[in-house]
Design goal:
Layout: H1 2-43, E1 51-54, E2 59-60, H2 68-77, E3 81-82, E4 91-95, E5 98-102, E6 106-108, E7 111-113, E8 117-122, E9 127-132, E10 141-142, E11 147-151, E12 157-159, H3 169-179, H4 191-204, H5 214-223, H6 230-246, H7 249-259, E13 261-265, E14 268-271, H8 273-281, H9 290-298, H10 312-328, H11 334-342, H12 359-369, H13 375-380, E15 384-387, H14 391-412, E16 418-425, E17 431-435, H15 447-450, E18 453-454, H16 460-468, E19 479-482, E20 487-488, E21 494-495, E22 506-509, H17 510-515, H18 519-529, H19 531-540, E23 559-560, H20 562-573, E24 577-578, E25 584-588, E26 594-597, E27 603-604, H21 608-624, E28 641-646, E29 652-658, E30 662-669, H22 684-692, E31 708-714, E32 728-734, H23 749-757
Parallel strand pairs: 1-15, 3-4, 12-14
Antiparallel strand pairs: 1-11, 2-10, 4-5, 5-8, 6-7, 8-9, 13-14, 15-25, 16-17, 16-30, 18-23, 19-22, 20-21, 24-27, 25-26, 28-29, 29-30, 31-32
Helix pairs in contact: 1-6, 3-9, 5-6, 5-7, 9-10, 10-11, 14-22, 16-18, 16-19, 16-21
């Protein structure tokens, strides 16, 4: 019997060892699995980071064209604070025409910009003096670029990553004192913290404190679900220990401060202290004071429950509790504690923009990015996209579009009237402003890019450029026939164009035909040139659309979008140089390394002589032709060039025009293609003028080629004449004038009058 019991004991012991061995093997396998999960997440991509899209960085230097109101608006957009005494970055002071500004340090592609304390003066919308008040003087200073939006993953999260050195020391200390005092001494779990939390909860009679370490909280966020179970808690503890084995405390703390969930903006989750600082205070984390940092840490316990916008009293009580902990630990002395506790929450009414601020422009950026990048890269790699958007231009364009359209709509009682506009810089082809709807924040159909509408008389400069590129045949003084005609096609259809005013003007000079937008003389000229010739011109202007193969093309039956019109007119503004429109300057990694640049692409597609002549004619449009009403709004000394466009029954109102700095294209119409009652000058030109008056700019600068000379011509006959002759008009000419007929002044009063005028 004894032997039997002894044998059973040995069997049980062997079985127990086997069970223990199996458990050890299972536990080891599980630990290996958990370890692999931890290391994979940390050594790979921890988060799907959206691509961040930024506007241009405002440059400040002597001679810079800059409007004071526009500057102040951009400073407010960047949340610079107006103060009486500028002492730190993010502050400014305006006294009359004098500006004192303390810029923020920021990183540009492959370049770091330190903070600068500067003072400058603005006179006549120009920086006339510039003085550095710091120790690093420069000739040019930069504001940080405004973040206009992001390209988010399917699970939308706003997260702005900082490295451990960029987090304020006060934030780190506040976080550790409040959430995990033993962080730098424990190995992922803290028995002392658990015991301390249990005692605090017993004393309070409810759960007031948790025992989880920051490492455990991070593990829970990165690796585990929200379920409450013993297994999940065990996994949490084991993974926390594994995390501590493999990675330094600073790496873990950095990850935690970039990952912690701190609020919700619609469908967009706010993660990390930097994103939360922008969301609640509209400022960078480094600019927060102790009270603001304490509030952010206070929200760690429950960002919904302690939401300062919804529950300000509750969140202030929690913030003050955090401050009292700092006081108890002697991190804050009594006076510092009292001062911080007395501070209001100072939550901004609206969060700093975390969704796409300019949806139409963002649409253009996305389309250009997708020519190079996959959607997954844009939604996960944390790329930084630096664009050409000028917030000052964009705001003024939005304001001019909405206000003018409202006035026009009320005039004709037509609430469905729509608009779109594109603004580019003349010298670079960069898109600096874009509106795709009468409500600029609308994220739907983008008319600036996708609304293809007949462009009316906007096509005419291309017809005239086709002629002026042949200097042996055509000049601005060439006489055109502005009389009616019929054109019958093989299928029996008849095309019979008319002038807008239904009047025939007989013999007119080419310059005046374009200036007054005569249809009959333009159509006759186009037929004389031939459709292939005009097609070739349009393609050289950068148009990629399929072109209308009928003579109606000459009068604007071609349908184009505002962005396509901008591409065409940019070549007019740049004296024959074609450059593709672009909205992106550079793309960098999350760390700031440049991976893509979008340089200027310039090709001379027309001789400068022909464009000089065309620009002269387009300036005549503005001074004396269909665009002259612009000068009711704009200063007379500003030389402008442009063209109106109106389609049949006033269904589309267009204007395209440029100064020496900006080209702007505006369209007004109804989506259902019903008439608007507005011509190009009565509708789109008003939006254009109201916008152009708000932006400092210079006159069209025409560089006169050597082969261009000025002569006087008789407006009735188109023949060369003398300066003092009646109806004489001075025009530039390209080439030999020997072939141009000459006539002297009519004898009599005209000669005497001209002679008298010569004395004055």
């Amino acid at each position: 019997m004894l032997g039997l019991n002894k044998e059973l004991f040995h069997i049980k012991r062997a079985t127990l060892w086997k069970i223990l061995l199996v458990l050890v093997l299972v536990l080891s396998a599980w630990l290996i699995y958990l370890d692999a999960q931890v290391r994979y997440k940390f050594e790979g991509q921890r988060w799907s980071l959206p691509a961040q899209v930024f506007a241009r960085s405002l440059e400040i230097y002597e001679g810079k064209a800059l409007n004071l109101k526009n500057l102040e608006q951009e400073l407010q957009l960047l949340n610079y604070q107006p103060v009486h005494d500028v002492q730190q970055s993010g502050q400014y002071k305006i006294t009359g025409k004098h500006v004192e500004l303390y810029t923020r340090s920021h990183s540009k592609p492959e370049e770091h910009q330190p903070a600068h304390h500067i003072r400058f003066t603005l006179k006549s919308d120009q920086v006339t003096s510039l003085l550095s008040l710091g120790h690093q003087p420069s000739t040019i200073y930069y504001l940080e670029p405004f973040k206009i939006g992001g390209i988010y993953p399917h699970v939308k999260e706003e997260r702005q990553l900082l490295n451990i050195a960029e987090f304020p020391a006060r934030l780190k200390q506040t976080l550790l004192i409040t959430e995990d005092r033993d962080f730098y001494s424990h190995m992922g779990i803290s028995p002392f913290a658990i015991a301390r939390a249990m005692w605090a909860n017993i004393q309070a009679g409810k759960i007031v404190q948790g025992g989880s370490t920051l490492t455990q909280q991070l593990v829970k966020s990165l690796f585990l679900s929200r379920e409450r179970s013993l297994i999940r808690k065990i996994n949490e503890a084991m993974m926390a220990i594994l995390l501590e084995i493999h990675y330094s405390k600073d790496v873990i703390l950095e990850t935690y401060m970039n990952d912690i969930f701190l609020g919700q903006s619609g469908k967009l989750a706010i993660h990390g202290f930097e994103a939360a600082s922008n969301f609640y205070f509209a400022k960078h984390l480094r600019e927060c004071d102790q009270a603001e940092l304490a509030l952010l840490v206070a929200m760690v316990k429950g960002p919904s429950y302690y939401n300062p916008r919804r529950f300000p009293v509750r969140s202030k009580i929690r913030r003050d509790l955090v401050l009292s902990l700092l006081n108890q630990e002697a991190y804050l002395n009594d006076s510092e504690f009292t001062l911080a506790k007395a501070q209001p929450l100072r939550i901004v009414n609206k969060p700093l923009q975390v969704t796409n601020r300019f949806p139409a422009f963002m649409d253009l950026v996305k389309r250009q990015l997708r020519e190079t990048y996959q959607d997954d890269d844009l939604r996960s790699e944390g790329l930084k996209v630096f664009t050409s958007l000028d917030p000052q231009v964009q705001f003024q364009l939005e304001r001019a579009s909405t206000r003018t359209l409202k006035e026009l709509s009320s005039r004709i009682n037509q609430e469905d009237l729509q608009t779109a506009a594109v603004v580019t810089t003349v010298g670079s082809g960069e898109v600096v402003g874009l509106v795709g709807d009468k409500q600029p924040q609308y994220q739907g159909f983008n008319r600036a890019l996708d609304a293809k509408r007949p462009i009316g008389s906007l096509i005419k400069p291309a017809v005239y450029l086709s002629a002026l590129s042949q200097p042996t045949k055509y000049h601005l003084s060439s006489v055109l026939n502005d009389q009616g005609f019929k054109l019958e096609f093989e299928d029996g259809q008849i095309w019979q164009p008319q002038n807008f005013d239904k009047i025939e003007h007989g013999q007119v000079m080419l310059n005046e035909s374009l200036m007054n937008s005569y249809n009959l003389s333009t159509a006759r000229l186009g037929i004389e040139l031939g459709i292939p010739s005009v097609h070739k011109t349009l393609k050289k202007l950068g148009l990629k659309a399929d072109l209308n193969p009928y003579p109606s093309l000459f009068l604007g039956s071609q349908s184009l979008s505002p962005i396509e019109v901008s591409q065409m007119y940019l070549t007019f503004a740049n004296q024959g140089f074609n450059m593709p429109l672009r909205a992106i300057r550079e793309v960098t990694t999350a760390q700031g390394d440049v991976i893509s640049r979008y340089p200027f692409q310039v090709e001379q597609v027309f001789p400068p002589e022909s464009l000089f002549l065309l620009q002269h004619a387009l300036q005549s449009v503005m001074r004396s032709g269909t665009g002259r009403s612009a000068y009711y709004t704009l200063p007379a000394e500003l030389d402008l060039a442009g063209k109106t466009g109106t389609t049949n029954d006033n269904r589309d109102s267009w204007f395209a025009g440029f100064s020496g700095d900006y080209l702007a294209v505006v369209w007004i119409g109804n989506d259902d293609n019903t008439p608007t009652a507005f011509t190009g000058s009565g509708g789109a030109l008003k939006v254009w003028s109201n916008f152009m008056k708000t932006i400092p700019q210079s006159s069209v600068a025409m560089v006169q080629p050597e082969q261009i000379k000025y002569y006087w011509f008789d407006r009735q006959t188109g023949k060369r004449t003398d300066e003092h002759c009646k109806d004489a008009s001075q025009l530039p000419v390209w080439g030999d004038i020997a072939t141009l007929p000459y006539q002297s002044c009519t004898q009599g009063f005209s000669n005497i009058k001209g002679w008298i005028k010569s004395w004055f």
